[in-house]
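User: My collaborator and I are trying to settle a disagreement about how two of our proteins should look. Neither of us wants to argue from intuition anymore, so we agreed to look at predicted structures for both before our next call. Could you fold the first one, then the second, and keep them clearly separated?

Assistant: That sounds like a sensible way to settle it. I'll keep them separate. The first protein:
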Amino acid sequence: MVSGELGNSAPAGATVDLPAGFACHVGNMGMKDDTDDVMVLAADGLAAAAGVFTKSLFAGASVRLSQANVADGRVQAVVVVSKNSNVATGEQGERDAANLARRVAEFVGCQPDQVLVGSTGLIGVHYPEGKVDAYFDRLVAAREGALTSRDATAAATAIMTTDTHPKTASASAGGATVVGIAKGSGMIEPDMATMISVITTDAEIAPDRLDAMLRRVCDVTFNALSVDTDTSTSDMVVMLANGAAGPVDEAALESALGAVSLDLTRQLAFDGEGAETLIVVTVNEARDDAQAKRVAKAIVNSPLVKTAVHGRDPNWGRVAMAVGKCSDETDIHQDNVVIRFGDQELYPTPATPEALAELEAYLASDEVLISVDLGIQTSEVGGSFTVYGCDLTDQYVRINADYTT
């Protein structure tokens, strides 16, 4: 389903175009400062659509509205507001989300229930009074030429909050293209989806097939990501397929979607708040994939593992600790476990002092692989899973300590 190949990330300063039949608009609506804070992306007509959303009990008004609007599998537009999450804002927040969908529909030329709404930023703050209507009044009055850009990089930039750079990825599937944008840097430990991502393709596919495909891919990419174990109230991954390129082989389309999603996942992990190192954890020889994922998440989420990597300390005992705290996994036995940093085995065969010195240099790399074999597979294949995270730095504490000030 998801191969090892990544999509094509855009180099710094490069532009990625949306697939044929999609256009976007970005601008400043006045949510916080003078940077772009609103992005509207639209198809030429109704598109097949699918979405996965946070399971947070504090899910925002935008999430609930989008869940309802995507239920029939057909939408035309997506709007994302950054700098304000519209979460825990009561009935006024519900009205604000519905009004935003209505104004975007007026701008695009579709129905309000054909618009998906994303909103990310501070919790518990209402949209500034009158800002949304005033902005869209101007857009509707100057509709000609206002929705003609295909610049996915600009769209990705407009939805950033604490991100340090825009995140885009693209891949091909036959004659079709898949392009994804994403934002996310902190509050990332998905409980169905993670951060905000909008994925577009000009392939033709039925909504139910698209929904199943997106969920399969999310499970091994976005849902394999963790920065800080915290699940956002605004998480959503949505995908639109407008059919402009006609039908393509669905296996090829799923492979392209997987490549784009994995690329974005790795970008998000590497851009974790204050992060300096991408941590990739692979668990093999598990009872099944689900067990491998649970153990891998325990490792990548451990503050002690994260700080060991940041400190360039090849302390494999931190990994053993993380495996050991999976106490419900009663078929894991320490005598069967193998722990490696990179290619170097550390347990049960101890590394030489020379190898440990080399590992200190390895841990200073941009990307560090930690692999664990559980030694309990019950078939030739066994269970395996890879997750993505980052180191824990003092800058993470500073960013979040000062978030509202």
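The second protein, kept apart from the first:
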Amino acid sequence: MSGTVDRDRVAQAVRELLIAIGENPDSAELASTPNRVAEAYTEFFSGVGVDPVALLADAVPVGEDTGELVLVRDITLRSMCEHHLLPFRGRAHIAYRPGEKVVGLGALPRVVETLAARPQMQERLGEQIADAMVEGLAPEGVLVVLEASHGCVADRGVKQVEATAVTIAARGTLSQPGMRAEILALIGASSR
């Protein structure tokens, strides 16, 4: 985990928050809450300061036998909305058309996890994943599709618990409408 989260300061802030909402942080029910939240935030924000491109460093050259497309779909996604510090959850689908190298399939979920483990916006997250793929692998094209439900939409304001946001980030050859449509159809084939 990243060492950027100051657990003591988070715990102090949570203690102050409890006081601010009229609760007693020293009560038996809440006495451990500040430390629990600090521990959770250490996990939630472990991607702060971590370079996602480094996770693609084990790429291997493939010569002319790269194949047409690599698609990893249904990558579990969990992040924290930077506007309300409420969670959003969903799935990421990453497709790339290899250039001269490919990376182990497990590297793609790690990139998603690292970039999601910081205060985020879904729209920016997809762009950051695509940019990391371009920088780390130099593929001919990248397509990132994110589908997520947001706590700030479901639990406050409009309270739309069934609403899902879909965002797309594309680079290179996978920006072309025909290629995008083909990949979106492959992603849709995984729908439940």
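Some points you might bring to the call about the second protein. The chain has a mean pLDDT of 93. The chain is about 35% helix and 25% strand.
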